Task: structure prediction
Amino acid sequence: MTSVVCRIKDGIQPFERRLALEELRALADGPMRPCDGDEATASTFLLSGAVQPVTLRKTLAYWRSIGVEPDGLTAQVRAEATLAAAQNGESLAELCRPEYPGETPRVARKRCLRYATHGLHEYRGKFFPQLVRALVNIARVPADGIVLDPMGGSGTTLVEARLAGRTSYGLDMNPLSVFVADVKCRALSLRPASLAKAYESLERALNGDAVRGDRPYFERLPADDQTYLARWFAPPVLDELDLVQQAIDELRPKVLRDCYRVCLSNILRGVSWQKKDDLRVRRQVEELPTGEVMRRFLKEALRSTKVIAAFNAQRCGERLGHHWMREGDARHAAREFPKLVGEVDTIITSPPYATALPYIDTDRLSLAYLGLLPRHVHRSRDLLMIGNREVTERRRADYWSRFVADRDSLPQATVQLVNRIHLLNQGREVGFRRRNLPALLAKYFFDMREAVGEMYSMLRPGACAFMVIGNNRTTAGGKLIDIKTADHLTDIATSCGFRRTGDLPMEMLSSRDIYRKNAMPSERIVALRKP
Result:
């Protein structure tokens, strides 16, 4: 029998400590005991039994070291250190040199969520990559196992599953989400030297004065999209965007072009006339200095290049899992991936919030400019999204009629919530969003019942599903109403056949992006098992 000292990461929150202990128990065969306090406070633990330190170092998400440092530092700590290296002034050439991966890393002192390709594009939500990796461990997904995220967003689950060597599948109805997620996964295989060469090519092409004239890229877009985009971007901005796109088009292979198209997407909102801190569609006309678009793009491209190159250099060719990210509906997951029915080893997903965010509207400029979704179908796609908050009077009436007819298929507490909000708003002068809320909430829970039912069918017997769920609140009749989405979705899941195996509250972190005003009061990790 062997023993090894395991040191937990510094500065983690209470829910992360619980996940850390659960993942270590899941991967270790022998007993573990705290060395410098009790289980709730100790920083080091002694693990005994048939210990495999190398495997634990490669796999664990919330542990600093397994054994003596620096050799005992975990792969996760080394991965997070690459972000600090990329941000702390090291040159691109320095990060890409062959000796770099073997050096002792400077351990990050604060929370690090954007290592690897996780920071490639801004995205709303609080889905932490370490959380995904820990849940893969806790679920004991085999080396050849399958991970599914039917509401894939920007691909956090798929990226972490691929880094863990597992096969992963994802769905999302937002084409920008699908594009970003797929690029994040594919960019993990890019060689640092290729990234550096691509950035240098872009820098040479764009480090000059903007040239105004024809726009060959823009003019290939559908005429309706050109008209729409011309309302949201100044003519000189469109000129410079075209120069950026032309420079990107010269890159080879396609994964490099796509990687920098994601960088271009990430600056579009900031150089447009969209009001910056408003999720609603609102114009705020302002003039940008000549060359500003190209400067912002190159800054974003360099940031992303350094982060990805530093991470990929550190990985030194470790095996990646396969991934498939597809545009599709979580309510029809079995139809999208028929061969996976009954075969998935775990599902890790973060469902959309109920009526909280205008998903398609928020991404409309990127969807149109990148040619991912024609403008004339944005409205119809938005109406199909789970959690959509836009509705016509006719659709609101249809949703409410369905609720009245089918409410017995929802849990009693969910029905009571919808009815309470509806009754509190009766006979009052309320805005259209509050007037629409009961019907939209009913539709959300009906939609999630379908999605959770599909999740159940995709899992193999005995497998786990994890949902990171954000709660919400609203005002009705002058009263503040908590929408405890986690409780409602848990009840829906058990009605679909799942057994609830755990529930872990998560502390919310303050957000620094445009979505901070829409941050939810609380989130929970709900753990479910298919019998």
